[in-house]
Structure formats: structure tokens, C-alpha cells
Please model this.
Amino acid sequence: MTLENWAPLLAFFGIGMLGLGLSGSAIGLSVAGSAVTGMRNERRGQGIAVSVLPGTQGLYSFAVGFLCLQKLTPFLADPTQEGATSAFIIVMAAGMVTGIACLFSGWYQGAVCAAGIKSINQDKMPMGQALLLAVFPEFYAILSLAFSALMLYS
Model:
């Protein structure tokens, strides 16, 4: 078996890896959402605003999946045409980069959000500062989205 034979499978493996980014969002949202449940009623609205931030990693994974499918479309009918193998490998790499980065970014952003929610509830930190701290893990998910887009379309 040559790389040309395995390349389509590897591309779909990379797209499947984007599920990790969706999982990161689900984990982060669960962690942050759990923190909201213990908040005082008068602070709960601020906690909910902070708790939704980990959901973006799932959106980034979905967007990269869409871009990957666009990249693959011309090669699926005839995977032997010129450039198909490199397109399949690029799709695999883009899926892995975004999936893994969004898994950990979403997961740990949920932990940062939960800590911020606790601080908001205890009047130790205003909501704006909690949001600012939660943006730092988000930055790396954004970088993975940008890097994947560059890989797919440069």
C-alpha cells in the first residue's frame, strides 16, 4: 500500500479529529456551567455570560471542517488526480491542529471561566476581568483556526 492509497483515509481521520474540538467545547461548557449553578441570584446573569465562552472552540472546529470539505471536494471523485495526495495530507494536518488545540483550549477555558465565575460570585473580581482572563486560552484556538486556514488555502 502506498501513501496515495492511504491519503483519503488520512484526510477523513483529520476531519474526525475535529470532533476533539467539539468535545473541548462540551467539556468547557460543562465545567463553566456547573460553576454558575452555585451563584447568587443577583450575580447569575454575569456568570452565564462568562460560562458560554468555551462554546467557540466547537464553532472553530466546525468552520475548519467546512474548509476541509471544500478542499477535498475536487479530489473525492478522482483521488488519483494530481495534487490529491497533498490535499489529503493537508486536510489531515489541519484537522489535527485544530481538533487538538480546541480540545485543550475549550477544556481549560472552562476551568478559567469557572474560577472567574466563583470570583464574581464572591465579589473578588468584576465580570470584565473574568472575561479578559478567559480570552487567553481562546487565543490559541483562534491561532489554530488561522493556521489551518493558511494551510488549506495558501
